[in-house]
Design goal:
Elements lengths: L12 E2 L7 H15 L4 E6 L6 H11 L4 E7 L1 H6 L11 H9 L6 E5 L5 H7 L3 E5 L10 H6 L3 E5 L7 H8 L4
Parallel strand pairs: 1-4, 2-3, 2-5, 3-4, 5-6
């Protein structure tokens, strides 16, 4: 029986700090193949703590912007650094990565420990960088290097009435 606390042994998940290992090599080979076919790499990121329709909608629309979607997933350490609350993340990285890696719109999940995914974006060189509409374009981490390479940066409108913070408030009887 598998331990749900382990990083999932999925070929489409790279744990935080693992981009330099074998899994990272496999990902970079896939990206080289994608670029050889003139495919467009899309990148988005987030905590995705309690998956809800707003997340699924954003990921589907992000994926529609290109041919391959990499989701940068905040590690537990990274989520805690964002001051989302003492009990966050609700679901640990392996659980979040497992669920996200099984969505049809997500091709790869790559974890990161930093508060933002700038280093990951620089390493992966996406053609399209996507965030939800609660992020103005000028505040999107990685905007400058993506645009400097001729890429696009999008802040897509959010699906109304869905947020993890609001969902947690309802669960806790506070909303």
């Amino acid at each position: 029986m598998r331990n749900p606390g382990d990083v999932p042994d999925l070929p489409s998940v790279i744990a935080p700090g693992g981009l330099a290992g074998n899994a990272g090599e496999r990902l970079f080979r896939r990206l080289a193949d994608l670029r050889a076919r003139s495919g467009r790499l899309v990148f988005t990121n987030g905590c995705f703590d309690l998956l809800h329709p707003g997340h699924v909608d954003l990921l589907a629309r992000a994926r529609a912007e290109g041919d391959f979607l990499i989701l940068g997933l905040n590690s537990d350490l990274s989520v805690r650094s964002l001051n989302k609350g003492a009990d966050r993340p609700i679901n640990p990285f392996p659980v979040r990565a497992f669920v996200l890696a099984h969505l049809a719109s997500v091709d790869f999940v790559v974890g990161f420990d930093e508060p933002d995914p700038l280093n990951l974006i620089v390493a992966l060189e996406p053609d399209v960088l996507v965030k939800g509409g609660d992020w103005p374009r000028e505040r999107i981490a990685g905007r400058d290097p993506v645009e400097a390479r001729g890429g696009r940066v999008l802040s897509l409108p959010l699906l109304e009435n869905f947020s993890t913070t609001e969902l947690l408030a309802r669960i806790r009887g506070q909303g």
